[in-house]
Specification:
With 164 residues, the protein is mostly helical. It is 68% helix and 0% strand.
């Protein structure tokens, strides 16, 4: 028979187990749900949570789920301060790559004129130049070039100039 001391120990351990276990992370629980309306569901989260889910989908899932950039890119200028903070605080190569992908998606979808934001372009160029992984650096350099060329292609085609 269990003594009072043993019963107390078992109760304490049960409480620790019940309250101390981590709940599934937001990102993991997001991807456990059906794929059906993944982008619609992502749009329901705040920007910080969308970013966490986006990073998880790009960094931990194969093939990377690059379409998750869309809902963040749709926010345009309102997402810039948050993304700049992430770029400043999370200087690892994968974070730089992912954030650059968000800006490239913004530029392509015309939700923000990334190319015209000289401060942003300077920061992105500096971050890409400082990347440790040369392969990712090359890929990110090409993304930056595409952002720059996007505006040139539009100008050559007369887009944004009021021309038919």
């Amino acid at each position: 028979m269990l003594s009072k001391m043993n019963i107390r120990i078992v109760c304490v351990l049960m409480c620790l187990f019940a309250f101390g276990c981590e709940h599934p992370r937001l990102e993991e629980s997001f991807f456990k749900r059906p794929l059906g309306d993944r982008l619609g569901r992502l749009r329901q989260y705040n920007l910080e949570d969308q970013y966490k889910i986006f990073r998880y989908g790009n960094d931990r899932i194969e093939p990377p789920l690059m379409d998750l950039a869309g809902p963040i890119a749709e926010k345009g200028a309102t997402a810039i301060p948050f993304l700049l903070t992430q770029l400043d605080s999370k200087a690892d190569d994968l974070a730089i790559r992912d954030i650059l992908m968000l800006f490239a998606t913004m530029a392509h979808s015309k939700n923000y004129d990334v190319k015209s934001d000289k401060t942003l372009m300077t920061m992105l160029t500096s971050k890409v130049s400082g990347m440790k992984d040369k392969e990712w650096q090359g890929i990110c350099s090409k993304m930056l070039e595409r952002i720059n060329e996007e505006q040139k292609r539009e100008q050559a085609a007369g887009v944004g100039l009021g021309l038919p």
